[in-house]
Amino acid sequence: MATMLAFIGTDASLEPAFARTALKAVVDNTFNMITVDGDTSTNDSCFLLANGQSGAPTLNEGHKDAERFVRALEAVCTDLARKMAADGEGAEKLIQVEITGAASEADARKAARAVVGSPLVKAAVHGADPNWGRIFAAVGYSGAQVDPLRAALWIGNLQIAQNGIATRATKQEARTHMEGTEVKFRVDLGLGAASATAWGCDLTEGYVVENSAYST
Amino acid sequence: MATMLAFIGTDASLEPAFARTALKAVVDNTFNMITVDGDTSTNDSCFLLANGQSGAPTLNEGHKDAERFVRALEAVCTDLARKMAADGEGAEKLIQVEITGAASEADARKAARAVVGSPLVKAAVHGADPNWGRIFAAVGYSGAQVDPLRAALWIGNLQIAQNGIATRATKQEARTHMEGTEVKFRVDLGLGAASATAWGCDLTEGYVVENSAYST
Questions:
Q1: B159: Cβ contacts below 8 Å, ≥ 6 apart
Q2: From A126, A132, A137, residue closest to B208, measured CB to CB
Q3: Does ipTM come in above 0.95?
Q4: How far apart (Å, rounded) are the C-alpha atoms in residues A87 and B128?
Q5: Which residue of A has its CA nearest to B128?
Q6: Counting C-beta atoms within 10 Å of the first and last residue's C-beta, which end of chain A has fewer, N or C?
Q7: Angular region, A90: left φ>0, alpha ψ -120 to 50, beta rest
C-alpha cells in the first residue's frame, strides 16, 4: 500500500457488516493492487467512516442501491490508489498493468502485481523502452498459469505480441506511448475469463537518491 | 540466480545420484541465495561435470570423503555466488545477510532473501545509512516467524538492536562499516537454531541507468 493511512468518509448510512464486506472487496482491487518497490509498512491501513447524515435509508447487502455504493467507493479508491502509485518515490510515470484471459482471479492478480513490481520492467518504462521480454518474463515467474502459445501483449493500444510471438507492429508507436506519463500494458494469458489490474511507477535515479541520500 | 549459466568441472569420479544430491544441496545454499533485483531468467542453470580423470575411487553418499567433496563444492559455489552478487548491474557493494535463531531453515532462508532483496535496504546500503528499521521491516513481511521481543541485529560486528530495541551503540561505527565494499548484516530471530545466508548488492543510480538507457 506504499505506507498509507486512508480515511474515507461518507454521509450514507451503512450496515456495519455491509460496510466491512464492501470495503474489503474494494481495497483488494485498489489499494492492495499498487506497488512502489514491494516493501510494505506497518502503517498501511484504510478506514471507512459512515455517519448517516444524508438521511437516506441504511444500505445492506441486499439493498437495491448497494451495488451503486460499492461502485462509487471503488471509483474513489481507484483514483487515490492511482495517485499514490504515480507519486511513488522518484516516480515520473504511472504504470497500469491489466491482465486478462487468466484461469482465475488469483492468477490475474499475481501476474499483474509481478509485472508492475518488476525492477527490470520499471526501469524499461523509465527509459520508454518497449522491452516486452521483461514483461513476459515477469508473468512467467509470477506463478500464474499462462498458455505461452496463446499469450498476447498490448502496449497502449498497440498489440506487440500475439500467440506468444512478436507482431509486425513497429516499436516506435509503443515507444511514443511509453514516453507519456501514463504507461499501459495489457497481457492476455490465453486461458480463461478472469482479469485484474495493478498500478505502479517507473524506477528512476530519483528513487535511489531519495532512499539512500538521507540519514536516519 | 541473476541470469547465470554455471559449469563446474571436477576430475573426481562421482556416482550420479550422489553428484545430483550434492549439487542440489550446495546450489540451494549458494546460487539460490543470491538476488540482484528479484527478477529471474530462463537461462539460470548449473551443471556439474565429473570426468573421473583423477583416478581416485568413485564417491557416493556413504564414502568417507563424500562430505569433504561437498564442502569443496560449496566453497567454489559460494565464491562464485558472492562474485555474481557483487557484480550485479550498477552494484558498488556486496551485501551479506545472515539469519540466525530461526524456527526453521525455510524461515531463515525466507528472511535472508527478503532483507537482501528489499529495495529500501539496498538503497540504504548504497547510502551507507544504518537504517535498521528497514531491515526489521523486511524480516517482518518475509513471512518468517520472529519473536519481536527477542530479535537482535548486528551491522558488521556492532550490535545495533537487542530484544527488539536499539542498543546504545553509536551509529557512526555502523556507518563506517557500511562505507566499505562488503556490508554484513546478521539478524537473530530469537526463536530456534536454524540459520541461512543470502547475498545481494546495493541499489544504485547505475542500476537504473543500465536497465533503462539502452533500447531493445
A1: B152, B153, B167, B169
A2: A126
A3: no
A4: 25
A5: A212
A6: C
A7: left
